[in-house]
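testing teh design pipeline on a random one, pls ignore if ur not involved
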């Protein structure tokens, strides 16, 4: 009898170890009563789809996915999670690159795609408020006839609230700024279900000197402080005209010197993208182009017809004085879109260098003047360690990506990639830069964040976290808490 009880206990424990911790039935029925029968999913496929972003981090499915339809439902769901101490993981489009959505501690994924309304467009004030299901392409489609657009473009068609949560940017940031410069207000649901407006409810002044900047605190918080349920964004007038150019350089230094001088000359350049010789070679092959295989700049100019001419001729002069050759520029939409398509396809072009391999993009950012040195050293490091890593950079911001193309079945190569990316981040830190310019900290860069910030700043971040989320329910295990299970090592072991 006693023996039998022990056996049952043993079975009970082992079942619970094998199966994910399930959410109690009572909790599930509360969820269903809040967001409807079809607003709660326990299906394995749905959970797996919500346990992973576009990075190489292992899939960590949540125990359950909920699909709220409005802020009241988000708040009610959060209150249930709070009283049952269940982790909450906000989910937009899953296009992140640092493992930010994995449910490393289990819990409830809040998929926000049903909240997809564009609210409160104020064309005369150049602002708009959107719900978390609205992606940047959807917003720009909505704005099509207004003469306005939202420029921040991280490549993927990410949700705007997710972009705020990760402080996203992209090719346009040199002219229009990142999400940090373009968010005016956020509606945020905290872990206990309370609803907060970071700049005061409904407010959207262009500037303010009122109190601490909570908006900036939430931008880049990666779901660890609250769930963003609305964001108010700055908009811009669609430029009257656009031109693009390509130019080849004898060295990385010459390309970066040209960039610095273009910015110093006050050219309001909209995009200035650097591709190293390996990347331009990959793009040539992939997109059937034939640019010289040397460091290259892709440029884009926005403005009136008159100002474009001036911008282009100033830039051409500068590039020539730095040994730039083959300056080709284009006004027609077709040539321009072919050029930028090649840039946007750089990821696939990199992958095509080694068929059957996987790609992993890492990102650092340094003061502009350090860019030539870090790129040159990084290229030497790649060669020494027999790694394929074409480089593309938002050079006007000192930000670049190394697209690591790696054979997932080669543990030795995976290890070399891991060590390489750590060295790259530390090289950026040693040059007064940051371990991530736009991808975020997520899971993989937590210990680098500590090195970057130092103890007092990390303690301040920890105190902020404890003040807003004392039970550590909001996306636990991300950004803070280095060295725990899942840090660094977990990366690269599961390239699937
Ligand atoms: C506060 O932060 C937001 C988001 O980063 C930014 O857009 C805004 O300009 C900041 N406000 C002030 C007054 O600095």
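output:
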């Amino acid at each position: 009898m006693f023996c039998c009880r022990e056996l049952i206990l043993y079975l009970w424990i082992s079942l619970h170890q094998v199966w994910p911790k399930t959410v109690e039935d009572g909790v599930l029925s509360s969820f269903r009563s809040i967001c409807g029968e079809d607003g709660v999913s326990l299906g394995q496929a749905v959970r797996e789809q919500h346990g992973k972003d576009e990075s190489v981090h292992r899939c960590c499915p949540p125990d359950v996915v909920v699909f709220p339809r409005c802020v009241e439902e988000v708040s009610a769901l959060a209150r249930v999670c709070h009283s049952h101490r269940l982790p909450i993981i906000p989910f937009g489009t899953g296009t992140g690159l640092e493992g930010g959505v994995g449910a490393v501690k289990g819990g409830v994924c809040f998929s926000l795609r049903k909240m997809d309304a564009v609210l409160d467009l104020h064309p005369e004030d150049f602002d708009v408020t959107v719900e978390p299901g609205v992606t940047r392409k959807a917003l720009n489609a909505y704005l099509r006839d207004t003469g306005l657009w939202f420029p921040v473009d991280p490549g993927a068609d990410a949700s705007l609230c997710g972009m705020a949560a990760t402080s996203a940017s992209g090719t346009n940031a040199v002219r229009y700024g990142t999400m940090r410069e373009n968010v005016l207000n956020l509606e945020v649901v905290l872990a206990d279900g309370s609803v907060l407006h970071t700049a005061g409810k409904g407010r959207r002044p262009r500037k303010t000197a009122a109190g601490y900047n909570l908006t900036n605190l939430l931008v880049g918080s990666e779901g660890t402080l609250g769930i963003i349920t609305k964001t108010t964004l700055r908009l811009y007038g669609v430029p009257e005209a656009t031109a693009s150019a390509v130019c080849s350089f004898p060295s990385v230094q010459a390309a970066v010197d040209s960039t610095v001088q273009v910015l110093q000359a006050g050219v309001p350049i909209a995009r200035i993208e650097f591709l190293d010789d390996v990347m331009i070679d990959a793009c040539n092959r992939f997109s059937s182009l034939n640019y010289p295989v040397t460091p290259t700049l892709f440029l884009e100019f926005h403005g009136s017809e008159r100002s474009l001419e001036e911008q282009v001729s100033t830039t051409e002069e500068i590039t020539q004085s730095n040994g730039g050759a083959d300056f080709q520029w284009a006004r027609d939409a077709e040539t321009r879109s072919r050029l930028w398509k090649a840039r946007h396809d750089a990821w696939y072009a990199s992958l095509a260098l080694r068929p059957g391999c996987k790609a992993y993009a890492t990102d650092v950012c340094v003061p502009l003047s350090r860019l030539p040195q870090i790129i040159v050293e990084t290229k030497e490091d790649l060669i020494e360690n027999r790694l394929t890593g074409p480089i593309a950079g938002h050079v006007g911001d000192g930000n670049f990506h190394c697209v690591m193309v790696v054979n997932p079945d080669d543990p030795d190569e995976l290890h070399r990639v891991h060590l390489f990316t750590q060295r790259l981040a530390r090289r950026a830190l040693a040059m007064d830069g940051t371990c991530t310019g736009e991808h975020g900290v997520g899971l993989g860069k937590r210990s680098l964040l500590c090195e970057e910030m130092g103890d007092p700043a990390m303690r301040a971040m920890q105190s902020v976290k404890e003040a807003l989320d004392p039970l550590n329910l909001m996306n636990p295990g991300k950004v803070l808490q280095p060295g725990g299970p899942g840090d660094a090592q977990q990366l690269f072991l599961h390239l699937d």
